[in-house]
């Protein structure tokens, strides 16, 4: 059995269908990115996986336990980082860490010290005196120090600066090496692109695409930029090619969007005065925008 499984998982709030028949299969040791704009159903999914809300239909299994009926047992195997840290304002960071560790029955205290240094976190200050980024560090240190089998992370780098984002990526890498499973919901597409083994894209409560980054690229065009030795080159032979779109042209430079095989394009370019050519795969951001182009906003979940 996988670390997280969902079958037909659905949630309705009154007339609003927030999640519609979600199927998930996360292998143990996998880092899974969960993408979607506000209102797509990401937070609803996390609440169902954590047993905070009861599904309207379907079910989810976390660490082999029913996420709703067996939530207490499942939570022994899970650590969670919320997008909006809600902590005890009168406690210091150190007191918060000790309290959370005691609630859980312990943590890896040596690793916790390493994490506090890595995230440049001062545990002496009270929570009420901390910025959002530093309150997020409290959660991150506490969660990763548990060495939990499954980490559920909801916008975990919100409020962190670029140096701390790098510390987060290093920590996720260590968790992957230890065989921990990470469910990462994030708006930072570059972060997901760097860290995740597989990615799921949610729109209006439905999982509309899923796979590795290479698999997801099937919907998006490759960008090809070509420079010519002179201006006024006839681009009509390029426009006649199937799967090739002239996205922009200026002076002696042209930008092309290419879907499908590159061979016909290369054969055509061989007869033109090309000086340089650069080709790149679509980024995760470009893939994401393909799914959301002309998509109307949906109600928040």
From TrEMBL:
Single GO molecular-function term? ATP binding
Residues of the ABC transporter domain:
4-229
List the Gene3D superfamilies hit by this protein, alphabetically.
P-loop containing nucleotide triphosphate hydrolases
User: Which SUPFAM superfamilies does this one have?
Assistant: P-loop containing nucleoside triphosphate hydrolases
Q: Tell me the InterPro entries matching this sequence.
A: AAA+_ATPase (IPR003593), ABC_transporter-like_ATP-bd (IPR003439), ABC_transporter-like_CS (IPR017871), ABC_transporter_ATP-binding (IPR050763), P-loop_NTPase (IPR027417)
Subcellular location, principal: membrane
Report the locations given in the UniProt record.
Answer: Cell membrane
Q: Does the keyword Flavoprotein apply?
A: no
Q: Does the keyword Zinc-finger apply?
A: no
Under the heading Pfam families, the entry gives: ABC_tran
| Entry keywords, A to Z | Antibiotic resistance, ATP-binding, Nucleotide-binding, Transport
Which SMART domains does UniProt cross-reference here? AAA (SM00382)
Topology versus the membrane: Peripheral membrane protein
Into which family does the record put it? Belongs to the ABC transporter superfamily.
According to UniProt, the name of this protein is ABC transporter ATP-binding protein
Provide the organism lineage as a comma list. Answer: Bacteria, Bacillati, Actinomycetota, Actinomycetes, Pseudonocardiales
């Amino acid at each position: 059995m996988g670390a997280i499984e969902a079958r037909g998982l659905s949630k309705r709030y009154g007339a609003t269908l927030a999640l519609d028949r979600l199927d998930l299969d996360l292998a143990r040791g996998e880092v899974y990115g969960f993408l979607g704009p506000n209102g797509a159903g990401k937070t609803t999914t996390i609440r169902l996986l954590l047993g905070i809300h009861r599904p309207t239909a379907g079910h989810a299994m976390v660490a082999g336990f029913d996420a709703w009926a067996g939530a207490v047992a499942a939570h022994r195997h899970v650590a969670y980082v919320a997008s909006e840290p809600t902590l005890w304002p009168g406690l210091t960071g150190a007191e918060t860490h000790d309290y959370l560790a005691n609630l859980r029955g312990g943590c890896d205290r040596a690793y916790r010290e390493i994490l506090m240094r890595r995230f440049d976190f001062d545990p002496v200050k009270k929570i009420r005196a901390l910025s959002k980024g530093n309150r997020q560090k409290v959660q991150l240190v506490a969660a990763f120090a548990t060495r939990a089998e499954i980490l559920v992370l909801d916008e975990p780098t919100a409020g962190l600066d670029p140096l701390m984002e790098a510390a987060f990526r290093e920590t996720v890498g260590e968790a992957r090496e230890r065989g921990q499973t990470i469910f990462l919901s994030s708006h930072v597409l570059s972060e997901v692109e760097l860290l995740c083994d597989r990615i799921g894209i949610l729109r209006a409560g439905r999982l509309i695409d899923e796979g590795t980054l290479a698999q997801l690229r099937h919907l998006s065009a490759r960008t090809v930029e070509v420079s010519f030795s002179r201006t006024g080159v006839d681009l009509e032979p390029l426009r006649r090619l199937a799967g090739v779109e002239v996205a922009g042209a200026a002076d002696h430079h042209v930008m092309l969007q290419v879907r499908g095989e590159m061979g016909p394009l290369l054969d055509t370019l061989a007869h033109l005065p090309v000086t340089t050519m650069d080709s790149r795969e679509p980024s995760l951001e470009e893939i994401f925008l393909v799914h959301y182009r002309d998509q109307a906003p949906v109600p928040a979940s």
